[in-house]
UniProtKB/TrEMBL annotation:
The keyword Lyase is annotated on this UniProt entry: yes
Keyword Cytoplasm listed: no
GO molecular function: hydrolase activity
EC number: 3.4.-.-
Protein name per its UniProtKB record: Abasic site processing protein
Keywords recorded for this protein, A-Z: Covalent protein-DNA linkage, DNA damage, DNA-binding, Hydrolase, Lyase, Protease
InterPro entries, per database record: SRAP (IPR003738), SRAP-like (IPR036590)
Enzyme class, broadest EC rank: hydrolase
Stretches for region Disordered: 224-245
Length: 245
């Protein structure tokens, strides 16, 4: 699974890196070294503007979405906390994800992600969870494959009220490879540059072709280092969380 990650790039860097057409200046997010479920996160997606003509072209946007997918048919937002990940093996079949898989795909920029491993303390004999930070060796941003969805809040009367709609997302996971596999059997699935356009294109809806884009994690070597258990507390944040221990 992927339950925490770091995302510290500013919107100006992300707009350039992912060739974004539209950035909502009213949406701002502070850098985070401890992104947790239900936090707002940056997402790159493509969609046609609401109310646009049928032949209007989709535009690439950088949006702040809530992490934890809430299906459109959900009665409330509570289910989102349990849907932070979607397994690549079954997402095309699961009711919560299959619609988003064919229509609402996104990329979630990340510096790297955390995983935990059970280790035995030689001094006490007790077992504890040791966090590790896993990231590209070259320091480049990771583009985690994700899905997003719209949820209509029934408490808001008007459809055109911005408060009526909540946009949420989930991270796709796969079998861990490279150094990540020594820490945890699962990892987020990152895409390479050459797959961005096909993945984000909302007109691309063939499930088999889409699944072919998710055959393996992004190329490149990953670096793994143990970090402080301070990351276990969602209230802790800052670059010190990435310091090796």
């Amino acid at each position: 699974m992927c339950g925490r990650y770091a995302s510290t790039r500013g919107p100006e860097d992300l707009v350039q890196r992912f060739r974004v057409d539209d950035l909502r200046v009213e949406e701002t997010l502070a850098p985070s070294w401890n992104v947790a479920p239900t936090d707002d996160v940056w997402a790159v997606l493509e969609r046609t503007p609401r109310g646009a003509d049928d032949d209007a072209e989709a535009r690439r946007e950088l949006r702040a979405l809530r992490w934890g997918l809430v299906p459109s048919w959900a009665k409330d937002v509570k289910s989102g906390a349990r849907m932070i990940n979607a397994r690549v093996e079954t997402l095309h079949e699961k009711p919560a994800f299959r619609r988003a898989f064919t229509r609402h795909r996104c990329l979630l920029p990340a510096d790297g992600f955390y995983e935990w491993q059970q280790v035995k303390d030689d001094a006490t004999g007790r077992t504890r969870k040791q966090p590790y930070f896993i990231h590209p060796e070259d320091g480049q941003v990771m583009a985690l494959a994700g899905l997003y969805e719209y949820w209509r809040d029934p408490r808001v009367e008007r459809d055109d009220d911005p408060a009526a709609w909540l946009m949420t997302c989930t991270i796709i996971t796969t079998d861990a490879t490279d150094a990540a596999g020594r820490v945890h059997p699962r990892m987020p699935l990152a895409l390479t540059d050459d797959h961005y356009d096909a993945w984000l294109d909302p007109a691309h809806q063939d499930p088999d072709e889409l699944r072919s884009l998710l055959g393996s994690p992004a190329d490149g070597h990953l670096d793994v280092r143990p970090v402080s258990p301070a990351v276990n507390n969602v209230g802790n944040n800052g670059p010190h969380l990435l310091d090796p221990v």
